[in-house]
Amino acid sequence: MTIDTRFQNALDILEAGAGMARSWFDDAHFRVERKDDGTPVTEADRSVERHLRDELSKHFPEDGLLGEEFAEVEGTSGGRWIMDPIDGTKSFIHGVPLYSTLLAYESAQGLEFGAIALPSLGRLVYAQSGRGCFDGQGRQLTTSDRREVQDAYVMSTWLEDWPLELINRLQNQDGVIRTWGDGFGYALVAAGQADAMLDFTVSPFDVAPMPVIMREAGGVFTDFDGVESIHSGVGVAAATPELRDAVLREIAQTTSSPTSTLME
């Protein structure tokens, strides 16, 4: 077994939730509402998160729960499960199959487990600290060995909040920017199919699985100060520390402000 039984149970719960998300997506009949912050939410988001919460509470009643759609539940263990039922809701609503379902476990020692399920693509990426990073067939994943911006494939969820100067700087070094974002972009980096993922606007549940996944695949996930954190509101994943440092240098040398602060 590639991960402990505890996390295998959680992975099974995630895959069942991802299957629910796929069913909603394929049916394409669901209500879309606007939350107080103006971002969209569907009945599918809430249905999947309820399933994840119910099953996690049943199996791990001592743990806390943090998700995008409902209030945080405090636990007694000092650990909590962090989930995003449909990461990429806008893609989901528009019939784009690059949405994902995310789950991570955070203890007092830090993030110990993370998983990205891509329901409509039939892909899964998961990792436990010290055990490696794997796909749904149990094959070990490793990041690329890219160390420079030149020819690097840099993903992002969107470009609306990127400083225009940063886009120009990366492209001037022959960096390739693509908006294959959300959990899908991070999964590509973990599998060595892309080299970096850069987000200027994220919440903890958007990126909770990424530190352990990147670490176990041989890469890194940090904020813009180089600190491994999901609580800074920004995130950069890179195949190597050298590439992360190169991207952060470009960000530091960017003088213009982001064009907007749109959130999903």
Any overview of this molecule?
By secondary structure, the protein is an alpha+beta fold. The protein has two domains: 3-135, Fructose-1,6-Bisphosphatase, subunit A, domain 1 (Fructose-1,6-Bisphosphatase, Chain A, domain 1), CATH 3.30.540.10; 153-255, D-Maltodextrin-Binding Protein, domain 2. Helices cover 33% and strands 23% of the residues. It has a six-stranded mixed beta sheet, with helices on both faces. The termini are far apart. 45% of the residues are buried.
Helix content estimate = 25-40%
| Radius of gyration, in angstroms, nearest whole number | 17 Å
How is the CATH topology of the largest domain named?
Fructose-1,6-Bisphosphatase, Chain A, domain 1
For the record, give the distance between the C-alpha atoms at the N and C termini, rounded to a whole number. Answer: 36 Å
Main β-sheet: number of strands, strand sense, barrel status? 6 strands, mixed
For CATH, the homologous superfamily of the largest domain is named as Fructose-1,6-Bisphosphatase, subunit A, domain 1
- The CATH architecture name of the largest domain reads 2-Layer Sandwich
Strand content: 15-25%
Strand order of the largest sheet: 3-4-5-6-7-8
Helix count equals 8
Q: Can you tell me the CATH class of the largest domain?
A: Alpha Beta
Q: Which residues sit in consecutive blocks of at least 5 with pLDDT less than 50?
A: 257-264
- Categorize the overall geometry: globular
Number of strands: 13
Integer average pLDDT: 93
Number of domains: 2
Order of helices and strands: HEEHEEHEEEEEHEHEHHEEH
Q: From the helix content, strand content and strand pairing, which structural class follows?
A: alpha+beta
